[in-house]
Design a protein that fits this description.
The chain is built from ten helices and 13 strands. It is of the alpha+beta class. It has a six-stranded mixed beta sheet with strand order 7-6-3-4-5-11, covered by helices on one side. A five-stranded antiparallel beta sheet has the order 8-9-2-1-10, with helices on both faces. A two-stranded antiparallel ribbon has the order 12-13. Helix 1 packs across helix 2.
């Protein structure tokens, strides 16, 4: 089933809602970085969260999430844009298996205590960055706290990743529900009841629920309309030419030393794992360009 995201608004204009199925996206990230289960779950949740946030900004803008903790994962860096493109990586892609008391992958302990940073690149303005302490390390809870504290928007964020025994991803996705100004107590109470009935986002997606059907559960009792539907993909911005420009950041002496030892230079993209090889002639072109 294809990965896609939907954005909706209740007809009473009191609730904004988004839902995404990102199973293929997270599978591609798992293959690119060869992540073990707890890293897959953490990175997958972050990618889904970034996709949902990316759908809430304007065309051409971008959102970045940086989760820095004291657990074995070290950090998670993800980016997403309005067009449904996301990429990301985890500092330690292969931590040992960590299971919590409920028998689930222990993402919270793998991330540990730390900070969540949210960066928004809007047009040509200087990027805006907000941060909050990690309240649980479960990522969904942390984004909920971020929306409430930094953006003063009462929100509920649910994110899930179900990892199979062969390390592949069986299901991944999530949702964001936000109360808009003027929401009544009746709306709030009904929404709270609906949210209490959602036990596992990833299980619902594994059962075959589409993003629209997920919203029907979340918004039971409300009339709503879909405002947008968009495919989501794992897509990196790196390419050979852009990567070649990184050689300029190394000093000519460093480049020469690497060439003498290795006869070539390799640069690996953190975000997608793609490795670019540059031979002596290509490096010397860069050096000549710098001299010029």
């Amino acid at each position: 089933m294809e990965d896609y995201l939907v954005r909706a608004l209740t007809t009473n204009k009191e609730i904004r809602a988004l839902a995404v199925r990102s199973t293929g996206v997270v599978n591609q990230a798992q293959r690119a970085h060869q992540t073990t289960p707890v890293a897959t779950a953490a990175l997958g949740r972050a990618l889904s969260g970034a996709l949902l946030m990316g759908a809430m900004i304007k065309s051409g803008d971008e959102v970045g999430l940086r989760i820095v903790g004291d657990g074995p994962l070290k950090r998670i860096i993800v980016e997403a844009n309005y067009y449904g493109e996301t990429r990301g990586y985890v500092g330690n892609p292969q931590p040992d298996l960590m299971i919590n008391e409920q028998g689930k992958l222990d993402v919270a302990r793998a991330i540990g205590k730390g900070q969540l940073f949210v960066t928004k690149r809007i047009g040509r303005e200087e990027p805006y960055e907000g941060s909050v302490p990690l309240v649980s390390g479960e990522i969904g809870d942390d984004l909920t706290y971020y929306f409430t504290q930094s953006e003063q928007t009462p929100s509920a964020v649910g994110l899930g990743v179900l990892v199979d025994t062969d390390l592949s991803v069986k299901a991944a996705g999530g949702f964001v529900i936000q109360l808009l100004p003027g929401a009544t107590e009746e709306t709030i109470s009904r929404l709270e009841d609906n949210l209490a009935g959602i036990k596992s986002v990833s299980r619902l997606i594994e059962e075959g629920l589409s993003p629209e059907e997920l919203l029907e559960k979340l918004l039971a009792g409300f009339d709503f309309r879909i405002l947008a539907k968009r495919e989501v993909i794992f897509k990196c911005k790196c390419n050979r030419e852009r990567t070649k420009e990184l050689l300029i950041s190394l000093s000519p002496k460093e480049l020469q030393e690497i060439l003498e030892e290795e006869y070539k230079i390799e640069i690996k993209c953190h975000f997608c794992g793609e490795t670019y090889h540059f031979n002596r002639e290509e490096v010397e072109e860069v050096l000549q360009g710098e001299d010029g």
